[in-house]
Design goal:
54% helix; Arc Repressor Mutant, subunit A; mainly alpha; 166 residues; HTH CENPB-type domain-containing protein; 9 helices; 2 domains; single chain
């Protein structure tokens, strides 16, 4: 289903609670179909959520790992979907924290460059980012920015050089 057609209230937390409510009501003899209709969501959806309940509960209670020197990031319980089965980047544990940090730096009107992002990622996960070549780090940074819909702000209306920005 296209993202714009997914109801906003069908978050991971909502799905897990719906399954918990269904399991509580099931003891009284109510059918799954009747419960789904009374709750206002499709019967097949409840059936799918029940199959995925262990992952839904885990995602709605998960606290992401964060570096001790950066602010914690809220859990992904309010997201609409579970993690997909596709390839996950090695840096997935730090990407939410890194994204929040970048936005905070921009809010403080600090200049955030690709080199700055790479240095921060290397500091947070030296075992993953350390052995990569400079080109691989730049490529990772571009993919990270694309995944999180971030852009590098262009500095084009001033005569200052890049050396001054560092």
């Amino acid at each position: 289903m296209p993202r714009d057609r997914i109801p906003a209230h069908y978050t991971n937390r909502f799905k897990a609670r719906a399954v918990e409510d269904w399991r509580a009501v099931r003891a009284s003899g109510t059918s799954r179909r009747a419960f789904a209709e009374s709750s206002g969501f499709p019967h097949p959806s409840l059936q799918n959520w029940e199959c995925k309940y262990s992952r839904l509960a885990q995602e709605s209670q998960r606290q992401p790992r964060a570096s001790p020197n950066l602010p914690p990031v809220p859990s992904r319980a309010s997201r609409l979907t579970l993690s997909g089965s596709g390839h996950k980047p090695d840096t997935a544990p730090i990407e939410d924290t890194l994204c929040v940090f970048i936005k905070d730096e921009r809010r403080l009107e600090h200049i955030v460059t690709v080199d700055f992002i790479i240095d921060m990622a290397t500091e947070l996960m030296p075992e993953v980012m350390g052995p990569k070549s400079p080109d691989a780090k730049t490529s990772w940074c571009q993919r990270f920015l694309h995944r999180d819909h971030l852009t590098i702000r262009r500095i084009c209306r001033c005569h200052l050089s890049r050396k001054w920005l560092r």
